[in-house]
Write a structure and sequence with these properties.
This protein is of the alpha+beta class and about 375 residues long. Among the domains are: about 5-50 and about 145-235, 2-Layer Sandwich (Gyrase A, domain 2), CATH 3.30.1360; about 285-360, Beta Barrel (Elongation Factor Tu (Ef-tu), domain 3), CATH 2.40.30. It has ten helices and 19 strands. The protein has helices at about 5-10, 30-40, 60-70, 120-130, 155-160, 205-220, 230-240, 245, 250-255, 270-280; strands spanning about 15-20, 25-30, 45, 50-55, 80-85, 95-105, 105-110, 135-140, 145-150, 175-180, 185-190, 195-205, 225, 285-290, 300-305, 310-320, 325-330, 340-345, 350-355. Strands 10-11-12-9-3-13 form a six-stranded mixed sheet. It has a six-stranded antiparallel beta barrel with strand order 14-17-16-15-18-19. The longest helix has 12 residues, at about 205-220. The chain is globular, with a radius of gyration of 21 Å. The chain starts with 6 loop residues before the first helix and ends in a 14-residue tail after the last strand.
Length: about 375
């Protein structure tokens, strides 16, 4: 079982731990509702050191990154952050990632998991495979890195106490190098909660000192330690996807990420399959569901319309801000309209009334995210 550089600081708080993707991670420190509301109302801190960080440097760095992803990094300024995905040759999403431009001919790809239970590193292995013969140095810096997410409306006030960086001037999806609590770090205006927030990446040997400094400064801002359960409910309100939601060869078009696809940038893995899919059209779309009787759907629950199966649930959680049981799932395009009535059938055959809704349910205009 793999552990993050914050492991002993985490277990000192006596959280409920869980095994996820081969990592031992905190599921919750207090209650899922308290941690969820802390992020929406004050500030919460997550340990995201399970992520993967792969640096690509050299004259062919741009060409290699472009070859892997659907989005276009060719016009990215230094310190810009871009959301995108990596496909298979069939056009199906294999991984959704963020790309950081750290310097001239220098990029970093950040993935949800650096490695899984089988110690596989699919994104890194793909970089190595596609980079053969190219002038690019590919380095996995995951194990030497610590990453925390500090999220919520008080996150800027909290971090301002620990750094001289201009956080007021750091816009959404941008990053900057800075000293934070005396530690050299990469601070990015990114997150997975739908709130104003930051992710801070730094050398793993400073993990304990960083953790202690943030907790010390965070007390006056109501900082709460948060686990995976709260992360799950927060992202469900915002409609952010996880691996469950694009499994099975789904393309960016079905998942609602067509806006990230730049077919005119040149060739990339899966491009031809996407061209064909776009020409023939797609028949279903990933949508949010609000379940009216409070039942929280499980992955694989069947979605019914007029008594007939039309799709299935990919993930579910209770949204404490919206005070509703939420899910995401695929429905036919004819049902992909807000307010469409459907029924969720659980594993025991019980039926739960629900409505199809557009993503995101929470802060659809992203005013809080971009505050």
């Amino acid at each position: 079982m793999k552990r993050s550089p914050f492991f002993y600081d985490i277990v000192a708080q006596d959280p409920i731990m869980a095994a996820v993707q081969g990592w031992e991670v905190p599921s919750q420190f207090t209650t899922p509702e308290e941690e969820h509301r802390a992020v929406r109302e004050r500030a919460g801190m997550f340990d995201w050191s399970t992520t993967g960080e792969f640096e690509v440097q050299g004259p062919d760095a741009l060409a290699l990154v472009q070859k892997l992803i659907v989005n276009d990094v060719s016009q990215m300024p230094i310190h810009r952050v871009l959301y995108t995905s990596i496909l298979g040759e069939d056009g199906g999403i294999r991984s959704d990632i963020t790309v950081y431009r750290l310097g001239q001919d220098h990029y970093m790809l950040m993935t949800a998991w650096g490695s899984n239970a089988a110690n596989e590193r699919p994104e890194f292995e793909l970089l190595l495979e596609q980079g053969k013969g190219m002038q690019a140095v590919i380095t996995d810096v995951s194990s030497g890195s610590g990453l925390v997410a500090i999220q919520g409306p008080r996150s800027r006030d909290l971090l301002t106490e620990l750094t001289d960086a201009d956080l007021d001037g750091l816009e959404y999806m941008w990053a900057t190098s800075a000293l934070v609590a005396g530690i050299r770090a990469l601070v990015s205006r990114t997150g997975y909660t739908g709130e104003l927030g930051y992710e801070v990446l730094f050398p793993a040997e400073h993990a304990h000192d960083f953790w202690t400094a943030v907790l010390g400064s965070g007390e006056k801002y109501g900082l709460t330690l948060c686990g995976m359960t709260a992360a799950f409910s927060l992202r469900m309100e915002k409609g952010y996807i996880m691996r469950f939601d694009f499994a099975g060869g789904r393309t960016p078009y079905e998942v609602g990420l067509g806006w990230t696809v730049k077919l005119d940038k040149g060739d990339f893995i899966g491009r031809q399959a996407l061209v064909e899919r776009k020409e023939t059209g797609f028949t279903e779309k990933l949508m949010s569901l609000v379940v009216r009787d409070g039942y929280v759907p499980a992955t694989g629950d069947v979605i019914l319309a007029d008594g007939n199966p039309v799709g299935y649930v990919t993930s579910g959680a209770f949204g404490y801000t919206l005070n509703a049981a939420l899910a995401m799932g695929y429905v036919p395009l004819r049902l992909a309209e807000s307010g469409t009535e459907v029924v969720v059938q659980d594993g025991e055959g019980k039926l739960h009334p629900a409505s199809v809704e557009k993503r995101p349910l929470y802060d659809p205009e992203e005013r809080r995210l971009r505050a």
